[in-house]
């Protein structure tokens, strides 16, 4: 419930988020440094990432990727950096295959709930 109270103060967080695109750009090289051994596989991984990315809205995608040896299904918003490259945003969720299957199993119930509103 504390998190909900923090979200209600979103005008302050929105101001921070406007500056945030610069911070992730600064953080990205750190991620690149930590994954230097996988740099060459990352190049082929980028192709795989593009192949495994499915658009579901403006700047919103479902992507399938591997992270620390585990399969993840991401549902995430993206943003454009200053170079025009799409970068994953903070808004999103990563599901493991079990969670993904649970979501798929409940699609008809979710659809019914949407229709009821």
TrEMBL record:
Ranges where the Transcriptional coactivator p15 (PC4) C-terminal domain occurs: 54-105
GO molecular function: DNA binding; transcription coactivator activity
Major location category of this protein: nucleus
Cell compartment(s), UniProt: Nucleus
One GO BP: positive regulation of transcription initiation by RNA polymerase II
Alphabetical UniProt keywords: Activator, DNA-binding, Nucleus, Transcription, Transcription regulation
One family name in Pfam for this protein: PC4
Keyword match DNA-binding: yes
Coiled-coil portions: none
Record region (Disordered): 1-54
GO terms for cellular component: nucleus
Domain of life: Eukaryota
Function: General coactivator that functions cooperatively with TAFs and mediates functional interactions between upstream activators and the general transcriptional machinery. May be involved in stabilizing the multiprotein transcription complex. Binds single-stranded DNA. Also binds, in vitro, non-specifically to double-stranded DNA (ds DNA).
Membership in a protein family: Belongs to the transcriptional coactivator PC4 family.
Protein name: Activated RNA polymerase II transcriptional coactivator p15
Organism of derivation: Salmo trutta
């Amino acid at each position: 419930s504390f998190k909900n109270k923090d979200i209600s103060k979103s005008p302050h967080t929105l101001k921070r988020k406007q500056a945030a695109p610069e911070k992730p750009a600064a953080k990205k090289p750190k991620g690149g440094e930590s994954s230097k051994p996988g740099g060459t596989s990352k190049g082929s991984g980028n192709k795989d990432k593009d192949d495994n990315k499915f658009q579901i809205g403006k700047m919103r995608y479902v992507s399938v990727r591997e992270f620390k040896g585990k399969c993840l299904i991401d549902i995430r918003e993206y943003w454009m950096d200053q170079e025009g490259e799409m970068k994953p945003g903070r808004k999103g969720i990563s599901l493991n295959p079990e969670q993904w299957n649970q979501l798929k199993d409940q699609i008809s119930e979710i659809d019914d709930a949407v229709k009821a509103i």
